[in-house]
């Protein structure tokens, strides 16, 4: 029984050693060729595309309701720009509009859209577009 036990240990050790050698040998050879092939293979394929994985179902992609569903929120933040946005330090910074003016009574804000805002097809973004989004 002692002989079988030592033979088994020797076999396990030898197989483990060969496995490690094989892994190290595979990892150390052909890196440059493999990387250059991958770079050439994918070159220019995805320049105009971005893929984002989400967990769950999207419901209503209106930027006014993005907080209702985390998936809507993730997608909307990738797709929509706001009139203003909150910077990482908590300050309000301009996005599609300049920082709004507050009236003397401090009851309403007036937003002025930046010039040269365009949709993806080149059509100008107008105050009617903003109103349409809010009206939804």
Topology:
Elements: H1 2-28, H2 31-42, H3 70-79, E1 84-86, E2 92-94, E3 101-102, E4 109-110, H4 127-135
Antiparallel strand pairs: 1-2, 3-4
Domain Solute-binding protein family: 92-135
InterPro entries: SBP_5, SBP_5_dom
Protein name: Solute-binding protein family 5 domain-containing protein
Description:
This is Solute-binding protein family 5 domain-containing protein. Residues 92-135 form the Solute-binding protein family domain. Pfam families: SBP_bac_5. InterPro entries: SBP_5, SBP_5_dom. This protein has a domain at 56-117. The chain is mainly α and 136 residues long. The model has no long low-confidence stretch (mean pLDDT 76). It is 43% helix and 7% strand.
């Amino acid at each position: 029984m002692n002989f079988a036990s030592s033979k088994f240990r020797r076999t396990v050790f030898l197989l483990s050693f060969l496995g490690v050698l094989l892994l190290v040998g595979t990892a150390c050879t052909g890196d440059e060729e493999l990387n250059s092939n991958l770079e050439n293979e994918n070159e220019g394929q995805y320049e105009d595309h971005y893929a984002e994985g989400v967990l769950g179902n999207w419901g209503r992609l209106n930027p006014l309701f993005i907080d209702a569903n985390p998936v809507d929120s993730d997608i909307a933040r990738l797709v929509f720009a706001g009139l203003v946005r909150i910077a990482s330090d908590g300050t309000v910074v301009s996005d599609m509009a300049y920082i709004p003016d507050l009236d003397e009574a401090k009851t309403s804000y007036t937003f002025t859209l930046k010039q040269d805002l365009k949709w993806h097809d080149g059509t100008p973004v107008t105050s009617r577009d903003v109103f349409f989004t809010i009206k939804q």
